[in-house]
Specification:
Length: 315
């Protein structure tokens, strides 16, 4: 082989091999199928006034490959950036805020690599949507975070005085001011910690029954962040939701048992991939037992499209 040939081979080794390995982390690699959940199905007594309402505040323009391993680079997916209003006579809860009024300013504080591959559209912040719908903020008891990443907390300053419920682990994570967190930009947020005083629930080791009627039950699901949670909501008609935050970005994470790729985990700043996998397998096992369970990943627009909208909800 002449010098040119050796040179080309070296370039191929240095450039192509890492690139091929990098692409392989996006290829399909389903997790082993767990046994269906076999434990008890707890009963709930949801008050008849309860409802869930989608509050989609904007989208992140992504591709399916960013959502789950095996997803195509050529299939465009608009990831929802959303909150969910859970109406309950003892006090409504807003699960995450989605994008807030100051998103453009806040966004400039995120890592430059992340900004370079992130293109969003802010539609209307949750606080403005609620005001436009004639919603009385006095009914809003608290904001319940699935976790504290930027796209879930951006709207917190738009709700002055409303307590923000977090686990002790997530509160500590907020204090550490990670690169994907906006909370460090906010003053005067009233964080209130809650614990998991309840026993195991649908395969998760502990639980917090918010109003004691089984209608809104929070379980720990650490991995994506140290204090990530899943919120189960049961409506009077028996409909059961699981708001899983960023356990998966897209529903295929559950239906195809596909995790995020290595690269996306780095970008999305998963703190504990093994912990996230353990909780993902719990959800997959539960979905096999309860096929009617509606799983709502925070960034899956299809899940929010199925939910009632503010315009349809009684205020
Ligand atoms: Zn996140
Ligand atoms: Zn997120």
């Amino acid at each position: 082989m002449n010098h040119k040939g050796i040179y080309l081979l070296a370039v191929a080794a240095v450039v192509l091999v890492p690139f091929t390995l990098f692409l392989r982390t996006f290829s399909a690699s389903p997790l082993p199928n767990p046994k269906p959940y076999e434990g008890p199905i707890p009963s709930a007594a949801p008050p008849k006034e309860m409802a869930v309402v989608a509050v989609v505040t904007g989208v992140n323009h992504r591709v399916a490959a960013f959502g789950y391993r095996g997803g195509s680079f050529f299939e465009r997916r608009d990831f929802s950036m959303a909150g969910t209003l859970v109406k309950h006579p003892q006090g409504d809860l807003l699960i995450d805020t989605g994008f807030g009024r100051n998103l453009d300013q806040q966004f400039r504080t995120l890592p430059v690599m992340f900004r370079a591959i992130t293109f969003y559209s802010l539609w209307q912040p949750a606080a403005d949507q609620l005001a436009a719908a004639g919603y009385d903020l006095k009914s809003l008891h608290a904001i319940l975070l699935t976790h504290s990443h930027w796209d879930h907390v951006s709207g917190l300053p738009d709700f002055p005085g409303i307590p923000v419920w977090v686990t002790a682990q997530e509160h500590e994570f907020i204090r550490q001011s990670g690169p994907m967190d906006f909370c460090k930009l906010f003053s005067d947020i009233r964080y209130e910690e809650y614990g998991f005083e309840g026993g195991s629930y649908l395969g998760f080791p502990a639980s917090h029954d918010v109003y004691g009627d089984g209608s809104i039950v929070v379980v720990p699901a650490p991995g994506h962040t140290p204090g990530s949670v899943i919120i189960f909501v049961t409506l009077p008609n028996g409909t059961r939701y699981a708001f899983v935050g960023d356990l998966v970005y897209q529903l295929e994470g559950i239906t195809l048992r596909e995790e995020r790729s290595w690269f996306v985990r780095r970008m999305g700043a998963d703190v504990d991939a093994a912990g996230n996998r353990e909780n993902l397998l719990r959800m997959i096992a539960l979905k096999q037992r309860l096929p009617e369970l509606i799983i709502v990943p925070a960034h899956d627009m299809r899940a929010f499209a199925e939910m009632p909208k503010l315009s349809q909800a009684k205020q």
